[in-house]
Amino acid sequence: MAALNISKGSSRHSAYDLRDPNSEVIEAHTLAVVVDNEAGVLARVIGLFSGRGYNIESLTVAETDHHGHLSRITIVTRGTPAIIEQIKAQLGRLVPVHEVHDLTVEGPSVERELALLKVQGTDEKRVEALRLADIFRANAVDSTLESFVFELTGTPEKIDAFADLMRPLGLVEIARTGVAALARGN
């Protein structure tokens, strides 16, 4: 699955949002967008966000229907309820878009992310990194005498927690896929 993670953790809001920041709650929403799998579609979706000053916290995309040539884009963004509604409406008006679902409000959903984390260290730090990896159910997918590469799947919060614990042990690099999400049940 091809994936891209853009601007993780940024606290900027839209340059066009002139409201009192205390008047409405800013919340994260996970949007699932089904689009035609053709050149330029992803650029148009991203352009909608950047052109209006909306931030994308996570973005994943892959073809999900080879026969129908459809792809699914999963976007995590933040905004007030009004801004989220505006984003959904604008996405729905794009010609290559077939469906827009706000998984955050449509009911329970499952969100997962994959991360690869490189940790360098020796002696006690190496042993502690392995112990923590076991607790988090991270797999060592590469090992040298000086480093490990761990593979971890879970919620973004789980990956953040693991990375925070690995930093003092020698975390030197991290690659994340971005959130993939599906609604639960029917």
TrEMBL record:
GO terms for cellular component: cytosol. It is an enzyme of class 2 (transferase). The keyword Transcription does not apply. Residues 30-105 form the ACT domain. Pathway: Amino-acid biosynthesis; L-isoleucine biosynthesis; L-isoleucine from 2-oxobutanoate: step 1/4; Amino-acid biosynthesis; L-valine biosynthesis; L-valine from pyruvate: step 1/4. It catalyses: 2 pyruvate + H(+) = (2S)-2-acetolactate + CO2. Its EC number is 2.2.1.6. Pfam families: ACT_AHAS_ss (PF22629), ALS_ss_C (PF10369). GO terms for biological process: isoleucine biosynthetic process; L-valine biosynthetic process. GO terms for molecular function: acetolactate synthase activity; acetolactate synthase regulator activity. InterPro entries: Acetalactate_synth_ssu, Acetolactate_synth/TF_NikR_C, Acetolactate_synth_ssu_C, ACT-like_dom_sf, ACT_dom, AHAS_ACT, AHAS_small-like_ACT. It comes from the Bacteria. Keywords: Amino-acid biosynthesis, Branched-chain amino acid biosynthesis, Transferase. NCBIfam families: acolac_sm (TIGR00119), PRK11895.1 (NF008864). Dimer of large and small chains. Catalyzes the conversion of 2 pyruvate molecules into acetolactate in the first common step of the biosynthetic pathway of the branched-amino acids such as leucine, isoleucine, and valine. This is Acetolactate synthase small subunit. It comes from Pacificitalea manganoxidans.
